[in-house]
Amino acid sequence: MNPVVEPKRKRINFSISLRYRLLLYAAPFLVLVLIFSYFPLYGWTYAFFNYRVGFPLFETEFVGFKWFTSIISNEYQVQEVVRVMKNTFGISTLGLLTSVFPVIFAIFLVEIRTNWYKRLVQTLTTLPNFISWVLVYAIAFMLFSVDSGIINKLMISLGLQSQPVNYLASSEHIWLKMTLWSLWKGLGWSAILYIAAITSIDQELYDAAKVDGAGRFRLMWHITLPGVMSTFFVLLLLSIANFINNGLEQYFVFQNSLNKDTIEVLDLYVYNTGLVGYNFSFATAVSMLKSLVSIFLLFVANQLSKWVRGESII
Amino acid sequence: MKQSFSDRLFNVCNYIGFGIFTLICIFPFYYLFIQTISDNSLSASGQVTFYPKGIHFNNYVEVLKVKGLSNAALVSVARTVLGTIGTVIGSAFLGYLFTKKKMAGRVFWYRFVIVTMYFNAGIIPWFIIMMNLNLTNNFWAYILPAIVSPFNVILVKTFVESLPEALEESAEMDGAGTILLFTRIVFPLIVPIVATIAIFSAVNQWNSFMDTVFLMTNDKLYTLQFVLYKYLNESNSLAAIIRSGQGMENIDLSKLQTSTSIRTTVAMIVVTPILLVYPFFQRFFVKGIMIGAVKG
């Protein structure tokens, strides 16, 4: 509680009622937060019961840590966990590696001196960020379609393949394909932060270096690049914190029975076992572990940031 | 200024490189569009590649007859409009209230809201709660969870705190209450940040897809995104739609609906609103992420 500092004693009565009136105005919104963000935490208790849809929780059997141990209870289950974790780590690692592309994109884009061209490039490359993953999938569907897609036509006419290939149904290089789609969608957008960071670099630094005879590449390497490193570092830490949260939508829309084994990241696995396989308690146990690990990762990233930058990120 | 050879070579490569990537980014949209206006039989057999052939606009008329599509469009528009209004009111008013030092337990409640950015119970517990609240197969499930967004609350709070305090104080002297103060004095001043929030929220609502997958089984509540996803994956039901929509008298093959024509036309309808507002909301980008980046 904040102590209320009031210059005049007479106004205290009024201010006390105002204190609670303000809280009352906020109450409906706070209730919404309570319902949609805090109530689901209570749902974690389902991980300790043998929950079945349609039965109230207290009528179902308490099973303790059964679901947690069942995650690695038999050989098949262990294989499943290893498979899903491999997908998660693989795609996240590719995501971390490709996070340098927006930096490169920004550094080279500001080297373009024709303003209209720079603006045009920025505008058009940011556009894909604002379409949904369903639409990305629709685009992929059209471009890679077996009988009408342009990619198959091109590949065949260039002699690179002899007959149409169903790219979307194949399970080959799925991690790479997913990473490339993420890049297509997000590269221009992610570069915006870096471009903003570059524009805030003191122009005098460049002028001074030019006087000293530094060429263009040395300016880029010694001034522009260090100028975006702190931004890059913060974003890198945030992606470490999100290492096991790949998100669901992208993998959900791109999954099919043929690529399921290699596309199923942790988030998708929780969805598939829980809402498709109706194994609510098991999926809750998995997603509870996932939440705990990602909170731990967030603290690790934050601590790293405090050590290196002397500043926290949360 | 004289340019050295390596400088010029660098420039040429740089311009060309960005040109190619830009083309990769926008060509799919163009490709989608030319499919929708081309001769349907040519487009279905993959003969439309770089320019439209046999131009006609019949697809956009025909697709409206597809059962359920206009209803899905209505749901999408309704959730975008109502959801955006909800988010704007929720984040603007709550963000403003949190600048009021007199509010009881202000710091606690502010943290209570903000900390929800960092944890997530997971989709299964969330789904069970939504089910228990009767928010499955309920239109309000699209709106209510979106009203308070911690990130937007931070944006508004930071923005209001940067305004000169004297403005509010003088109105307070005149005896204006909190609500009046907000609607008359504060809101007009925070329009720049509210516009940013509104536009991002509208795009989010329009693009939202997973919530329909989780919560809706009633086809009256399907959104355009979900219908598009269904059309892409269920070629059987699509073929049924095509058969039921077409009488025997329609024998012009170039205009006959095919699964390709329905898919591309629906995709085009889904993306068009984004393309239309895009030029206007571009200028909000940097402001939008920069404020968030200062203190996330």
Task: Give structural notes.
The complex is a heterodimer of chains A (314) and B (296). By secondary structure, chain A is mainly α. Chain A folds into two domains: 44 residues, no CATH class; 238 residues, MetI-like fold, CATH 1.10.3720. Chain A is built from 14 helices and no strands. The radius of gyration of chain A is 26 Å and the shape is globular. Chain B has two domains: 120 residues, no CATH class; 150 residues, MetI-like (MetI-like fold). Chain B contains 15 helices and no strands. At the A-B interface, helix 1, helix 5, helix 6, helix 7 and helix 8 of A face helix 1, helix 4, helix 5, helix 6 and helix 10 of B.
Write a compact overview of the structure shown.
The complex is a heterodimer of chains A (314) and B (296). Chain A has helices at 12-42, 66-70, 75-98, 101-109, 115-126, 133-144, 150-157, 174-199, 203-211, 216-241, 249-254, 260-263, 266-276, 280-309. Chain A is mostly helical.
For the structure shown, list the relevant keywords.
heterodimer, A: 314 residues, mainly alpha, MetI-like fold, 2 domains, globular, B: 296 residues, disordered C terminus
- Whole-number total of structural domains of chain B: 2
Main pleated-sheet profile of chain B: none
Poorly predicted residue ranges of chain A: none
Largest interface: A-B, 89 and 89 residues
- CATH architecture classification of the largest domain in chain A: Orthogonal Bundle
